UniProtKB/TrEMBL annotation:
SUPFAM superfamilies for this protein: FMN-binding split barrel (SSF50475)
InterPro entries, alphabetized: Pyridox_Oxase_N, Split_barrel_FMN-bd
Database matches in Pfam families: PNPOx_N
Protein name: Pyridoxamine 5'-phosphate oxidase family protein
Organism domain of life: Bacteria
Species this chain originates from: Streptomyces cinerochromogenes
Residue ranges constituting the Pyridoxamine 5'-phosphate oxidase N-terminal domain according to the UniProt record: 157-242
Gene3D superfamilies for this protein: Electron Transport, Fmn-binding Protein, Chain A
Amino acid sequence: MSVYHAGSRALQDQVGVRGRADHVGRSLGQDIKPVAAAFLEQQPLLIVGGPDPETGRVWAHALTGTPGFVRATGPRRVSVHTAHAFGRGITVGTIALDPRTRRRMRVNGRLTPTATGFTVDADQVFANCPRYIQRRESYETVDRSPGVSRHLTGLGDEEAEFVRAADTFFLATVNAAGADASHRGGNPGFVQVASPRELTWPDYPGNAMFLSLGNLYADPRAGLLFLDWETGSTLQLTGEARTGFAEDGTRTVRFTLTEALWTPNALPLRWSAPEYSPANPEPAR
C-alpha cells in the first residue's frame, strides 16, 4: 500500500518524480525508533497543526516546555505535557525542529487529550533533510509574559513587516485521512506580502514527496505560523493556499487569509542569531 494519497500522487506525476518519491517514501513508518525518541526528549519546541473541530479552519500552534515535555511513551505514541487544549480525536501533524543541529522530525496521527496535555498515536513518523533550516547555535529560557492576543482579518504594517523579515515558518495542511505540519525556510524576503490578505512564497525543491502540496491539491485549507526567534512573538494565520506552476517548472504558493492571531512575546525562548542555510536561494526581487 502506498504511503501517499491521490493529491501527492497527482503532483508527483505532474513533476515527474514518482520513482524518487517511492524511494523516499520508504522512510515513512509508524514506529518511533530509539534515536527519534531521544531527539524528541531534547526539544523545547513542538509545532502542532490540524483542524479546529468547531470551525474546520486549520491552524498551526507552537508549544514549548522544558526538554522532556515531549517524549515517546510507546513504540507508536508521543506524550506532550502542556496546558494547551485540543479537541478529542482530531488528527494532527507535529514537527520537532532543532535549529542547533538543523534536524527535524515529524509525527502525524490522532490526538487524545490527557490530564497533563495530550498523546498522539502515530500513523506516520519520519525525518527530513536539513535543507533550508537556519542554524541557531543556542537558546535560553527567559521570564516572559505573553501579551494580549489580537484577532485580525488582514495584516497591518507591523504584521506584514514581521512576515517579510521571517526566515522560517511552519505550514499545517490536511487530507481526508489526517494532517501534516511542515517547515518552510529561506532568506528573509522569501515570503512576500501581496496584499493585507494574501501571501506568496516559492516552493523550493525538496524530497519529492509533496505531502504538504499534495494535501493542498485535494483540500486548500492551511494554517501558517511565523515566530520571532528572539522575542517569542507569534503570528498564526488560517485560510486557503493553492499552488501555481510556471512554464519553467518553478512553483509558487498563494495563501489567502481568513483570520490571523498576533501574540506578542508568546514563547519563553530566545534563540541566537541565525546562520542561513547554504541551500537558500536568493529571494526574488
